[in-house]
Amino acid sequence: MSPLLLTYIVILVIPILLKEGEICVSHEENVEQAHVLLQSFVQAMLLRLAQDWTNHGLSLPQIRLLLALAHVAPATIGQLAEYLHIGQSAASLLVDRLVQAQLADRSDDPADRRRALVRLTAAGEASLGLQRAGQQRMHTILSSMDDAHLTMFIETFTAILSLAESEGPFGVIP
Q: pTM for the whole thing?
């Protein structure tokens, strides 16, 4: 059974059965099952995205840099290193690889010629289309759900995100 189907069953079918009283499990068992399924879902999505991008010759660190540039470009090497929580030398090497692959461009900062600014090239922007294709696949999956299940999905993930965000910003590694 695919992780996506398993996730669908746990998030949508099991709560319905619980309401009807056909299944009786403890809260802790529900938490564990939901956690395992959420992990499976995230892993399946990340593996699919990674597979799509590595099929185009990009390593995971290069993909992270590409996505970072989509959010913060133009940026200096130092800004990218800080954003990605890596050293400046590692960021510089990643930028070099993307420049060689013609996915990013490094140019002098007009405000300070000692610094270089990095931004995506047209090819780099086009490669982000892979991310958009993944988003379209998710949209197709969600479109196949009926309104009742979609509402339940929205309420569940809204609650999960709200609780997670109350602990601090996502993506920040201390």
A: 0.54
